[in-house]
Amino acid sequence: MAAAPGAFSLREVLAGFQECVTEQREVLLGPYLCGWRGLVRFLNGLGAIFSFISKDAVAKIQIMENYCGGERREEYRTLQAMVRYELSGGLVDLQRRSAHPDSGCRTVLRLHRALRWLQLFLEGLRTARQDASTSAICTDSYNASLAAYHPWVVRKAAVVAFCTLPSRDAFLEVMNVGGPEEAVEMLGDALPHIRNVYGITQELYEQHHLLDLP
Ligand SMILES: CCCCCCCC/C=C\CCCCCCCC(=O)N[C@@H](COP(=O)(O)O)[C@H](O)/C=C/CCCCCCCCCCCCC
Fold first, then answer.
1. Which CATH architecture has domain 10-207?
2. CB 164 within 8 A of CB 49
3. Is residue 120 within 6 Å of ligand 1 at its C-beta?
4. Ligand 1 centre from 142 Cα, in Å?
5. Is 154 in the pocket of ligand 1 (CB under 6 A)?
6. C-beta atoms surrounding 14 within 10 Å
7. Domain spans of the chain, in order of start
8. Which of 22, 97, 127, 190 would staple 26 via disulfide (CB 3.0–4.6 Å)?
9. Which amino acid residue places its CA nearest to atom 10 of ligand 1?
10. What's the pTM value of the predicted model, to 2 decimals?
11. How many CA atoms lie within 13 Å of 79's alpha carbon, on the beta-carbon side?
């Protein structure tokens, strides 16, 4: 079953992560940020308890959109160009946040870590039993990824919010890609692309020693 006209379908959102990889394995920031915008829209539909998460995500997406639409937009067309430009211009705070607190490199790193959470969460949803708890899948994915970078208070607030997540079937329904079986199939198609974007970014950041930016 296709999504109702005008309705929000996660299929289109996740397609952003497919479209953002070029044949040269570069990551186009435009579609990458579009993917994140769509995910935030989805998150907003899950209730006000998630607003502290969506506000932070939106702030980071906005920083990147400003670079991508700004005077140096050519330097922010791809992730690779951005890393080259910011590193060669000394535009990244490497030890502590000071002159360049919101560099593109540190901002994308936060989204990149969240992409790992997304990958684990979607894999969990896809492979879990029908009666599995979405909240448990989300908590496990979070603990195995993003939690390591968050202070205690954020970790607690996140886990409380996860407890309000609907059942797995209800969740798959909200994705608006048809019934649970179609949703599971769609996740199976989308996940390799998310893994690919994550892998390319991880490799690039490792190469340039950017994985611990403050
Ligand atoms: C069918 C599945 C669809 C899944 C759709 C999920 C939609 C998720 C949408 C957005 C994900 C949120 C991205 C969060 C980015 C967090 C970046 C971050 O780590 N920020 C922290 C560090 O930033 P700096 O201080 O260094 O600038 C910041 O401290 C964080 C604050 C807010 C809390 C972040 C908790 C993240 C939990 C992510 C799980 C989202 C739960 C969604 C439930 C489905």
1. Orthogonal Bundle (1.10)
2. yes
3. no
4. 9
5. yes
6. 23
7. 10-207
8. 22
9. 40
10. 0.96
11. 30
Task: Assess whether the C-beta atom of 56 lies below 6 angstroms from ligand 1.
Answer: yes
- Residues across the chain: 214
DSSP secondary structure string for all residues of 135-193: HHHHHHHHHTTGGGGS-HHHHHHHHHHHTTPPPHHHHHHHTTSSSHHHHHHHHHHHHHH
Identify whether the C-beta of residue 61 lies closer than 8 Å to the C-beta of residue 55. no
**Res. 47: pLDDT tops 90:** yes
CA 8 remoteness from chain centre: 17
Is the ipTM, as predicted for this complex, more than 0.95?
A: yes
Name which residue sits closest to atom 19 of ligand 1, judged by CA: 110
The amino acid sitting at 123 is E
Rounded CA separation 120/170 (Å): 19
Q: Is 9 helix (H, G, I), strand (E, B) or coil?
A: coil
CA 156 to ligand 1 centroid distance, Å: 13
Ligand 1 atom nearest to CA at 146: 19
Question: Measuring from atom 29 of ligand 1, which residue has the nearest CA?
Answer: 150
Residue 4 backbone class (left: φ over 0; alpha: ψ -120 to 50; beta: rest): beta
Q: Please write the tens of the pLDDT for every residue from 64-84.
A: 999 999 999 999 999 999 999
How is residue 44 written in tokens? 């907003």
CA–CA dist 201, 109 (Å, integer): 9
- Indicate whether residue 138 lines ligand 1 (CB < 6 A): yes
